[in-house]
Amino acid sequence: MEIEKLLDVGIRAGRMLLESGAEVYRVEETMIRICTGLACTDEVDSYVTSTGIMLSIGYNGQVFSKISRIKNRNVNLHCVARINALSRNIQIQDYSLEEVEQQLNKIEKEPKYSVWMTTLFGGIGAAGFALFFDGGMLEIVISFAIGILIRLLVSLLSMMKMNDFINNVIASMLLAILSIFSKKVFLVIDVNVVVISGIMLLIPGLAFTNAIRDTIAGDYLSGVSRVMETLVCACAIALGVMVVFSVV
């Protein structure tokens, strides 16, 4: 058994999970399942935070370890579900390292939702929130249009790999500008409904949910770091809207 290769496979699976929005306890458990399912190891231990992964394997009286830094995070629950299922299949079926690598390659190359698809549903989401907040038909239509523009901007900023704080400030500023412009064109709309509906697209709901789940699971460091991440995002959104409304 090539322990170094096993470490690489375990770390890769953990990195893909964490970058796709998985909880810390799930990443740790999945890496342990993969390593114990592929080799008769003396001991496997993992430690994961929201920005880093550490995996240690004991084999023939020696300890092998590897660390990986996580810089990019997004939401891909399909990837999380596929790797989670793979780790459980490894423990009940005979898999080789090469087969697991092939499976990970296949999962990594699976097509994600296109920019146009996420843009369309961004508009639908904003329109849905406008309806939820008792907006009229005009508020719903305007929220739909603004939601599409916000998603396009967020996708563009993500491709440019800009800082998340800056991304949220710029996106919230555009939201506020478009909302004020809509109010000047359509005097009867409720600008508050339009702004709130657009803001809901920028709020990191998955990160906040994972923060609660990590804290309940006893991963306090990751829980606190994810809470701080959501607070920073909230401050960025509030700053962008505040700047525009205070100037215009």
UniProtKB/TrEMBL annotation:
<feature type="transmembrane region" description="Helical">
    <location>
        <begin position="138"/>
        <end position="158"/>
    </location>
</feature>
<keyword id="KW-0812">Transmembrane</keyword>
<comment type="similarity">
    <text>Belongs to the ThrE exporter (TC 2.A.79) family.</text>
</comment>
<feature type="transmembrane region" description="Helical">
    <location>
        <begin position="165"/>
        <end position="181"/>
    </location>
</feature>
<dbReference type="InterPro" id="IPR050539">
    <property type="entry name" value="ThrE_Dicarb/AminoAcid_Exp"/>
</dbReference>
<feature type="transmembrane region" description="Helical">
    <location>
        <begin position="113"/>
        <end position="132"/>
    </location>
</feature>
<dbReference type="GO" id="GO:0015744">
    <property type="term" value="P:succinate transport"/>
</dbReference>
<keyword id="KW-1133">Transmembrane helix</keyword>
<keyword id="KW-1003">Cell membrane</keyword>
<protein>
    <submittedName>
        <fullName>Threonine/serine exporter family protein</fullName>
    </submittedName>
</protein>
<feature type="transmembrane region" description="Helical">
    <location>
        <begin position="187"/>
        <end position="209"/>
    </location>
</feature>
<dbReference type="InterPro" id="IPR010619">
    <property type="entry name" value="ThrE-like_N"/>
</dbReference>
<keyword id="KW-0472">Membrane</keyword>
<feature type="domain" description="Threonine/serine exporter-like N-terminal">
    <location>
        <begin position="10"/>
        <end position="247"/>
    </location>
</feature>
<dbReference type="GO" id="GO:0022857">
    <property type="term" value="F:transmembrane transporter activity"/>
</dbReference>
<dbReference type="GO" id="GO:0005886">
    <property type="term" value="C:plasma membrane"/>
</dbReference>
<feature type="transmembrane region" description="Helical">
    <location>
        <begin position="230"/>
        <end position="247"/>
    </location>
</feature>
<dbReference type="Pfam" id="PF06738">
    <property type="entry name" value="ThrE"/>
</dbReference>
